[in-house]
Amino acid sequence: MEGLVWFIVLVLISAILGAVAFFMALGSSRRFRVAEGRLQALEARYATLKTEFEALRTGAAPLAEPIQPPEIVEEAVAPIEQAPDAIPAAPPLPEPEIAQPKPRGNFEQRLGSRWAVWVGGLALALGGLF
Questions:
Q1: Which pTM does this prediction carry?
Q2: With helix as H, strand as E and coil as C, how does 57-93 read?
Q3: Closest by alpha carbon to 17, among 9, 28, 6?
Q4: Which SS3 state, helix, strand or coil, does residue 15 take?
Q5: 18-77 residue pLDDT tens
Q6: Would you call 1 helix, strand, or coil by DSSP?
Q7: DSSP state letter for 106
Q8: For residue 50, which of 58, 100, 25 has the smallest C-alpha distance?
Q9: What would you report as the CA-atom Rg of the chain, rounded to the nearest whole angstrom?
Q10: 83-123 pLDDT, tens per residue?
């Protein structure tokens, strides 16, 4: 009887996890379609700009639609100050410190420091198997 209870619990947990995975996949699919649409729009814009650039560079036929510059608000643009005659020299930068690599231990040291992790992983795997 106890085995039947555990079986029912496992079936319920599997059903819940399956539903969660299904809805996560739906969300991922939706996000993928949105990203794909944005990528196609960017590719189309890139192709248009590339064609316009080539036409401008070669001096070929004028553009079908002239490119309109963005509107500039006069109040938002700060006045340009006159450049000073002499630019002061920048102070010298300190030499960057090169990080020394950590000395790697030999096989014995690595095995000795991680043996408990490996034994614990093995115990967990065997516990799950049995």
A1: 0.34
A2: HHCCCCCCCCCCCCCCCHHHCCCCCCCCCCCCCCCCC
A3: 9
A4: helix
A5: 888 888 888 887 888 888 888 888 888 888 888 888 888 777 655 556 556 556 545 554
A6: coil
A7: -
A8: 58
A9: 33
A10: 555 556 667 767 777 777 776 667 677 767 777 888 888 88
